[in-house]
Amino acid sequence: MYFQTGSPRLPSDKSGAGDFDGYVDWSQPLIGQVENLGERYFEWTHQQVDRPIRLFRSDLAEMLTRAYWWMVPLTWVPVILYMLSSSYTRLAAQPETWPRKNLLARQYGPGSIPLLFAMGVVFWTLLEYVIHRWLFHLKPPGSSRFLIRLHFSLHGQHHKSPMDPMRLVFPPLPASVFALLFYLLTELIFPSGMANTVFAGIVSGYVAYDLTHYYVHHGGTPPIAYFRRLKTYHTLHHYKHQQLGFGISSKMWDYPFGTLIPEDLKAKKSQ
Protein backbone atom coordinates (compact mmCIF):
# COMPACT_ATOMS: atom_id res chain seq x y z
CA MET A 1 0.00 0.00 0.00
CA TYR A 2 1.46 3.38 -1.05
CA PHE A 3 0.45 6.93 -0.23
CA GLN A 4 -1.67 8.51 -2.93
CA THR A 5 -2.79 11.96 -3.95
CA GLY A 6 -6.34 13.28 -4.03
CA SER A 7 -8.64 11.46 -1.60
CA PRO A 8 -6.35 8.70 -0.34
CA ARG A 9 -7.74 5.38 0.80
CA LEU A 10 -6.06 3.43 3.54
CA PRO A 11 -6.55 -0.06 4.89
CA SER A 12 -9.28 1.37 7.07
CA ASP A 13 -11.93 0.40 9.52
CA LYS A 14 -14.54 3.13 9.34
CA SER A 15 -17.12 1.36 11.45
CA GLY A 16 -14.69 0.52 14.23
CA ALA A 17 -14.95 -3.25 13.66
CA GLY A 18 -11.66 -4.84 14.62
CA ASP A 19 -10.62 -1.47 16.06
CA PHE A 20 -11.21 -2.48 19.70
CA ASP A 21 -14.95 -1.96 19.28
CA GLY A 22 -16.61 -0.10 22.12
CA TYR A 23 -13.50 1.70 23.34
CA VAL A 24 -13.49 4.61 20.92
CA ASP A 25 -16.46 6.70 19.84
CA TRP A 26 -15.32 8.42 16.64
CA SER A 27 -18.04 11.04 16.96
CA GLN A 28 -16.29 12.35 20.09
CA PRO A 29 -12.80 13.80 20.70
CA LEU A 30 -10.23 11.03 21.15
CA ILE A 31 -8.34 12.62 24.04
CA GLY A 32 -10.20 11.30 27.03
CA GLN A 33 -10.92 8.01 25.27
CA VAL A 34 -7.57 6.59 24.15
CA GLU A 35 -6.41 6.43 27.76
CA ASN A 36 -9.02 3.72 28.35
CA LEU A 37 -7.30 1.39 25.89
CA GLY A 38 -4.56 0.59 28.41
CA GLU A 39 -2.28 -2.20 27.15
CA ARG A 40 -4.17 -2.30 23.85
CA TYR A 41 -3.36 1.32 23.04
CA PHE A 42 -0.05 0.86 21.19
CA GLU A 43 -1.39 -1.88 18.91
CA TRP A 44 -4.52 0.18 18.27
CA THR A 45 -2.53 3.18 17.04
CA HIS A 46 -1.05 1.01 14.28
CA GLN A 47 -4.42 -0.12 12.93
CA GLN A 48 -4.79 2.71 10.42
CA VAL A 49 -8.04 4.48 9.60
CA ASP A 50 -8.93 6.83 6.78
CA ARG A 51 -10.58 9.71 8.56
CA PRO A 52 -9.66 13.05 10.14
CA ILE A 53 -8.95 12.95 13.85
CA ARG A 54 -10.37 15.31 16.45
CA LEU A 55 -8.31 15.38 19.62
CA PHE A 56 -10.00 17.95 21.86
CA ARG A 57 -13.51 19.16 22.61
CA SER A 58 -12.30 22.77 22.77
CA ASP A 59 -12.21 24.42 19.33
CA LEU A 60 -9.24 26.55 20.43
CA ALA A 61 -7.21 23.57 21.63
CA GLU A 62 -8.08 21.69 18.44
CA MET A 63 -7.01 24.62 16.26
CA LEU A 64 -3.62 24.77 18.00
CA THR A 65 -2.94 21.10 17.19
CA ARG A 66 -3.68 21.35 13.46
CA ALA A 67 -1.61 23.03 10.76
CA TYR A 68 -1.41 23.59 7.02
CA TRP A 69 1.97 22.74 5.45
CA TRP A 70 2.61 26.37 4.45
CA MET A 71 2.47 27.44 8.10
CA VAL A 72 5.88 25.81 8.64
CA PRO A 73 7.96 28.06 6.32
CA LEU A 74 5.74 31.06 7.12
CA THR A 75 6.55 30.68 10.83
CA TRP A 76 10.17 29.59 10.76
CA VAL A 77 11.86 31.20 7.75
CA PRO A 78 11.72 34.66 9.44
CA VAL A 79 13.29 33.08 12.56
CA ILE A 80 16.09 31.59 10.44
CA LEU A 81 16.79 34.90 8.72
CA TYR A 82 16.78 36.81 12.02
CA MET A 83 19.19 34.34 13.63
CA LEU A 84 21.59 34.50 10.68
CA SER A 85 21.48 38.30 10.65
CA SER A 86 22.07 38.48 14.40
CA SER A 87 24.93 35.99 14.16
CA TYR A 88 26.62 37.91 11.36
CA THR A 89 26.38 41.17 13.32
CA ARG A 90 27.88 39.60 16.43
CA LEU A 91 30.67 37.69 14.72
CA ALA A 92 31.61 40.64 12.49
CA ALA A 93 31.92 42.87 15.56
CA GLN A 94 33.82 40.32 17.63
CA PRO A 95 34.91 36.82 16.49
CA GLU A 96 34.15 34.18 19.12
CA THR A 97 36.37 31.43 20.48
CA TRP A 98 35.23 27.81 20.75
CA PRO A 99 35.69 25.36 22.42
CA ARG A 100 36.17 27.57 25.46
CA LYS A 101 39.45 27.15 27.35
CA ASN A 102 40.53 24.19 25.23
CA LEU A 103 43.72 23.40 23.33
CA LEU A 104 41.56 22.89 20.23
CA ALA A 105 40.00 26.34 20.56
CA ARG A 106 39.88 28.54 17.48
CA GLN A 107 38.20 31.79 16.53
CA TYR A 108 35.03 31.93 14.46
CA GLY A 109 34.16 35.06 12.51
CA PRO A 110 31.45 35.77 9.92
CA GLY A 111 33.29 33.62 7.37
CA SER A 112 32.50 30.60 9.56
CA ILE A 113 28.74 31.03 9.21
CA PRO A 114 28.35 28.44 6.37
CA LEU A 115 30.24 25.85 8.43
CA LEU A 116 28.23 26.57 11.58
CA PHE A 117 24.98 26.48 9.61
CA ALA A 118 25.90 23.08 8.14
CA MET A 119 26.70 21.83 11.64
CA GLY A 120 23.20 22.82 12.70
CA VAL A 121 21.57 21.02 9.75
CA VAL A 122 23.52 17.81 10.46
CA PHE A 123 22.69 18.09 14.15
CA TRP A 124 19.00 18.36 13.22
CA THR A 125 19.16 15.04 11.34
CA LEU A 126 20.31 13.38 14.57
CA LEU A 127 17.63 15.18 16.59
CA GLU A 128 15.02 14.07 14.05
CA TYR A 129 16.06 10.45 14.50
CA VAL A 130 16.30 10.61 18.29
CA ILE A 131 12.93 12.35 18.72
CA HIS A 132 11.16 10.05 16.28
CA ARG A 133 12.59 6.85 17.73
CA TRP A 134 12.90 7.47 21.46
CA LEU A 135 10.08 9.94 22.06
CA PHE A 136 7.44 9.50 19.36
CA HIS A 137 7.80 5.70 19.25
CA LEU A 138 8.29 5.12 22.95
CA LYS A 139 5.57 2.66 24.02
CA PRO A 140 3.69 4.20 26.95
CA PRO A 141 2.81 1.87 29.82
CA GLY A 142 -0.83 0.83 29.72
CA SER A 143 -1.23 1.90 33.34
CA SER A 144 -0.29 5.54 32.65
CA ARG A 145 -3.21 7.55 31.32
CA PHE A 146 -1.02 10.67 31.17
CA LEU A 147 1.70 9.06 29.02
CA ILE A 148 -0.84 7.48 26.67
CA ARG A 149 -2.49 10.88 26.23
CA LEU A 150 0.88 12.56 25.65
CA HIS A 151 2.01 9.92 23.15
CA PHE A 152 -1.23 10.08 21.19
CA SER A 153 -1.12 13.88 21.07
CA LEU A 154 2.49 13.93 19.85
CA HIS A 155 2.59 11.05 17.37
CA GLY A 156 0.11 8.24 17.98
CA GLN A 157 -2.63 10.14 16.19
CA HIS A 158 -0.43 10.36 13.07
CA HIS A 159 0.07 6.59 12.95
CA LYS A 160 -3.64 6.06 13.55
CA SER A 161 -4.62 8.30 10.62
CA PRO A 162 -1.49 8.79 8.46
CA MET A 163 -3.25 10.70 5.71
CA ASP A 164 -4.99 13.38 7.79
CA PRO A 165 -3.53 16.42 5.95
CA MET A 166 -3.90 18.74 8.95
CA ARG A 167 -1.77 16.53 11.20
CA LEU A 168 1.27 15.92 8.99
CA VAL A 169 3.37 18.92 10.06
CA PHE A 170 4.06 20.10 13.58
CA PRO A 171 1.81 23.04 14.58
CA PRO A 172 3.73 26.26 15.41
CA LEU A 173 2.86 26.40 19.11
CA PRO A 174 4.08 22.94 20.18
CA ALA A 175 6.98 23.27 17.73
CA SER A 176 7.99 26.44 19.57
CA VAL A 177 8.45 24.43 22.78
CA PHE A 178 10.95 22.14 21.06
CA ALA A 179 12.59 25.13 19.35
CA LEU A 180 13.13 26.88 22.69
CA LEU A 181 14.80 23.75 24.10
CA PHE A 182 17.09 23.48 21.08
CA TYR A 183 17.95 27.18 21.27
CA LEU A 184 18.87 26.88 24.95
CA LEU A 185 20.99 23.83 24.12
CA THR A 186 22.95 25.69 21.44
CA GLU A 187 23.43 28.65 23.79
CA LEU A 188 24.77 26.24 26.39
CA ILE A 189 27.29 24.72 23.98
CA PHE A 190 28.37 27.73 21.90
CA PRO A 191 28.95 31.47 22.37
CA SER A 192 25.87 33.49 21.37
CA GLY A 193 26.97 34.54 17.88
CA MET A 194 27.90 31.00 16.91
CA ALA A 195 24.83 29.58 18.64
CA ASN A 196 22.50 31.70 16.53
CA THR A 197 23.87 30.27 13.27
CA VAL A 198 23.86 26.68 14.56
CA PHE A 199 20.26 27.19 15.71
CA ALA A 200 19.35 28.61 12.28
CA GLY A 201 20.76 25.41 10.76
CA ILE A 202 18.73 23.26 13.15
CA VAL A 203 15.53 25.14 12.31
CA SER A 204 16.28 24.92 8.58
CA GLY A 205 16.73 21.16 8.94
CA TYR A 206 13.41 21.00 10.78
CA VAL A 207 11.61 22.95 8.04
CA ALA A 208 13.05 20.60 5.39
CA TYR A 209 12.00 17.59 7.47
CA ASP A 210 8.41 18.75 8.00
CA LEU A 211 7.91 19.70 4.35
CA THR A 212 9.47 16.41 3.24
CA HIS A 213 7.16 14.53 5.59
CA TYR A 214 4.12 16.27 4.12
CA TYR A 215 5.35 15.67 0.58
CA VAL A 216 5.95 11.93 0.98
CA HIS A 217 2.37 11.59 2.23
CA HIS A 218 0.55 13.93 -0.14
CA GLY A 219 2.93 14.81 -2.97
CA GLY A 220 2.04 12.15 -5.52
CA THR A 221 4.91 10.33 -7.22
CA PRO A 222 8.02 12.48 -6.73
CA PRO A 223 9.94 13.25 -9.95
CA ILE A 224 13.26 13.06 -8.06
CA ALA A 225 14.56 9.55 -7.30
CA TYR A 226 15.73 10.49 -3.79
CA PHE A 227 12.23 11.50 -2.74
CA ARG A 228 10.68 8.43 -4.44
CA ARG A 229 12.92 6.26 -2.26
CA LEU A 230 11.98 8.24 0.83
CA LYS A 231 8.29 7.88 0.00
CA THR A 232 8.60 4.10 -0.30
CA TYR A 233 10.71 3.96 2.85
CA HIS A 234 8.23 5.98 4.90
CA THR A 235 5.32 3.91 3.57
CA LEU A 236 7.06 0.78 4.87
CA HIS A 237 7.54 2.51 8.22
CA HIS A 238 3.82 3.18 8.53
CA TYR A 239 2.38 -0.07 7.23
CA LYS A 240 4.92 -2.81 7.84
CA HIS A 241 7.88 -1.83 10.05
CA GLN A 242 6.61 0.72 12.55
CA GLN A 243 9.60 0.16 14.84
CA LEU A 244 12.17 0.62 12.06
CA GLY A 245 12.92 3.34 9.52
CA PHE A 246 12.95 6.35 11.83
CA GLY A 247 14.70 8.64 9.35
CA ILE A 248 12.25 10.79 7.40
CA SER A 249 14.26 13.48 5.61
CA SER A 250 17.24 11.11 5.50
CA LYS A 251 17.99 7.45 6.30
CA MET A 252 21.49 8.40 7.46
CA TRP A 253 21.09 7.56 11.15
CA ASP A 254 19.16 4.32 10.51
CA TYR A 255 22.46 2.79 9.36
CA PRO A 256 24.63 3.23 12.49
CA PHE A 257 21.70 2.60 14.86
CA GLY A 258 20.69 -0.61 13.06
CA THR A 259 17.12 0.42 12.25
CA LEU A 260 17.24 0.35 8.45
CA ILE A 261 14.11 -1.28 7.04
CA PRO A 262 15.05 -4.80 5.76
CA GLU A 263 13.31 -4.39 2.39
CA ASP A 264 15.35 -1.27 1.77
CA LEU A 265 18.58 -3.02 2.70
CA LYS A 266 17.79 -5.93 0.33
CA ALA A 267 17.01 -3.53 -2.50
CA LYS A 268 20.38 -1.80 -2.06
CA LYS A 269 22.28 -5.12 -2.11
CA SER A 270 20.55 -6.20 -5.32
CA GLN A 271 21.47 -2.98 -7.17
UniProtKB/TrEMBL annotation:
Membrane-crossing residue ranges in chain numbering: 67-88, 108-131, 168-186
Membrane topology designation: Multi-pass membrane protein
Record keywords, A-Z: Endoplasmic reticulum, Fatty acid biosynthesis, Fatty acid metabolism, Lipid biosynthesis, Lipid metabolism, Membrane, Metal-binding, Oxidoreductase, Transmembrane, Transmembrane helix, Zinc
Fatty acid hydroxylase domain boundaries: 117-259
Main subcellular location of this protein, as a coarse class: endoplasmic reticulum
MF-aspect GO terms: fatty acid 2-hydroxylase activity; iron ion binding
Assigned GO CC terms: endoplasmic reticulum membrane
Location in the cell: Endoplasmic reticulum membrane
Superkingdom assignment: Eukaryota
Keyword Endoplasmic reticulum: yes
Co-factor(s): Zn(2+)
Protein name: Fatty acid 2-hydroxylase
PANTHER family: FATTY ACID 2-HYDROXYLASE (PTHR12863:SF1), FATTY ACID HYDROXYLASE (PTHR12863)
GO-annotated biological processes: fatty acid biosynthetic process
InterPro entries reported in the protein's UniProt record: Fatty_acid_hydroxylase (IPR006694), Scs7 (IPR014430)
Tagged with keyword Cell cycle: no
